[in-house]
Design goal:
The protein is an alpha/beta fold. It has helices spanning 8-22, 26-32, 34-38, 90-100, 123-137, 152-166, 190-193, 249-261, 286-303; strands spanning 2-3, 51-56, 61-66, 75-79, 107-112, 145-150, 174-178, 238-243, 266-271. α6 (152-166) links the parallel β6 and β7.
Length: 304
Amino acid sequence: MKKDEVSLKAKFIRKMISIATSDHIIGPALKKGTIRKKLVEPHWHCPEGYKVTPIKMNKFDMEMLTPPKVKSKYIVLQLHGGGYIGRIRNIYRSFAKEYSDMCGGMKVLSIDYRVAPKNPYPAAMQDAVSAYNWLLSLGYKGEDIIVAGDSAGGGLSLALSLYLRDHSIEMPAGLVLMSPWTDLTASGASYDFNYENDPMFGNTRDSMIYNGEYPGKYDPSIPYISPLFGEFNKLPPMLFQVGSLEMLLSDSTDAAKKAEEAGCKVKLSVYEGMFHVFQMGLGMFQESIDAWKEVKDFVEGICI
């Protein structure tokens, strides 16, 4: 599916991103991820009737969001983005609220996994596995868990599924993958043909997508780091969403093709004119609204 029309609001926001990333002061910090490391946000306002429960694990923290009414046995495990260098942000708490309203009301577990450069691979993977096993210890079955992530969190969601399969752990019911970073070697075709088009990472080789700190001493082509290079057999149903202007476009299209060839149930949606994780717009413009509606349909299709 490819949407052909780009809304005026989306064009405006895309332009603002291009201006911000081209600025000689702010731009490099955005593209390298420096701002992601240092950003300090105000306390997130939890919507009335919802409850956030902090959970301390051995090496990382988690948050459980519970909606006013829980009608579904399913739960979403959310793995946030941020290039593996940024901690959880308020936008992901807002994402959790979107997920919690699906299926008549469901709990969402968001994990604040350890990040590079202090904690490179395999820290994030270890934390994701720990969170998943924690849910299993509560009595959830793998078939009750939907794993969702964007950007680095999307890549981590796919890598987590590879790990679970390889270690004979119950597989999740499905994967929601928003602009997943599946190839940390930056070898996909779109890194070239969208080099001048991408408003977030384009027109420079001096950005986090070329100089990621997550692999550390490990080869970035290891499937648990770059799941694109893994085997996709026996993975759960997955929804890929990606913008047509992204340098990470092929991270989704190549992974989706590989998953289909392995016999997986896959839906790939390329949103014309969209930028990296445009779903952060939530209800601000039509493309983001449409994307969240598609996520809702995918998740609720699992919950039936």
